[in-house]
Amino acid sequence: MFRNQYDTDVTTWSPAGRLFQVEYSMEAVKQGSAAIGLRSKTHVVLACVNKANSELSSHQKKIFKVDDHIGVAIAGLTADGRVLSRYMRSECINYNFTYESPLPVGRLVVQLADKAQVCTQRSWKRPYGVGLLVAGLDESGAHLYYNCPSGNYFEYQAFAIGSRSQAAKTYLERRFENFMDSSRDDLVKDALIAVRETLQGETLKSSICTVAVVGVGEAFHILDQDTVQQLIDAFDIVGEAEGPAAEPDAPAGEDAPADQAAGADQGAPADQGVAPMDI
Amino acid sequence: MELNHEQQTQFGPQADSQRTLYPYVTGTSVVALKYKDGILMAADMGASYGSTLRYKSVERMKAVGKHSLLGASGEISDFQELLRSLDELILYDNMWDDGNSLGPKELHNYLTRVMYNRRNKFDPFWNSLVLGGVKNGEKYLGMVTMLGVNFEDNHVATGFGNHLARPILRDGWHEDLSYEDGVKLLEKCMRVLLYRDRSAVNKLQIAKITEEGVTVSQPYSLKTFWGFSAFQNPTVGAEGSW
User: Belongs to which family (chain B) (predicted)?
Assistant: First the structure.
């Protein structure tokens, strides 16, 4: 009786000017485990939380190398993330074939966003259910972008997506002003702390997170598990709630306030809550 | 080649020759070298219709974007078409307005791909191209042929220049050549080419590209001396020549 009449296909507007299917696809990003990115003038660090689907399974890869100078971390539908990573890899390799030089990060992100946008305007398609943090280095420096299923993209100093990412964002928002001049190792440290913020009491171990780095003189690579564990031990950031615990960690479902801020940029009216899920 | 009936009646027997089977209007050698601050390039302004020296004011060196200079010998119309497509490429590159731009290395590789792609269609751009440039303090000088053969070097020359100018360049070139010495060396090459290459004309330009940008000189002539004894009776030591 109170079914939402305006969410049965992507191209139908609601009278309030919203595209529900697109908003639902953005919800998919929040369901995935957290991914974090931050950058300095010379380096970008990506980090993510690896969650196994069941006790018996291994976890899925969430950070992909696209090229020597670009990598992505994803949150949401991993399958969609892999499709987009493959697209990005092929764009990079084609550019490299033609010009024998690396594809500028911002241009790849625009192409990716255009690809995602098409899915929001075709009745026979569905939007991608994945958010991508794109880290890269080019002529104009180090970059971190967030690519949204809605076809929007934003450049960030630091950002976090996925479940409980609000806690990481809160941490990053407090610290990002120092990031520009951070050393590579300090970025990694901040990335690990931000990851820990999303864990909510769980212990930070190298087995549940992945860290990757790209920067000047350093091709994109995923740090191996031993290295990550050593860093966790060295920085002594195992503990659950120290320091930033003063801020109440927002539970997963109630990411609304900050996500809404982002949502405002993305065309959803700010006065409304997240897309109604009571269908 | 067998033609089907329809093609013959519609377009005549040459209907399938919609590609350059041989060049019509051609320019001769381009010579270029690296010097202290960038790249110097020289080419005369003649263009031959077959073996007739038909045009005398054809510019064969053009700036492409901010960081590159392109010189061409061979079919002039193919060069003009290449310039048109390169200008479009640079325009689209600029439209990103993101602080990234195609440098000489990128353009050289791009041209290599274009030239090789066209030869694979059996429809080559009938040119030898010289691409010089400076970007971020990095000097670049390379060549591409109509087959897509490509290389980089400290000095290059196309066509007849490859035979007549390269030996002179190998003798006279060194890493930190001044602008004046560079121009002198190029003129030495161009003078030999003028004497010995029948398609060369005594009206040339010298182009310079540095970090500051491209300048192409006004056309000028070289001083010549035709009284060398070798010119008086050129076939004297050449057994069997007429």
Answer: Belongs to the peptidase T1B family.
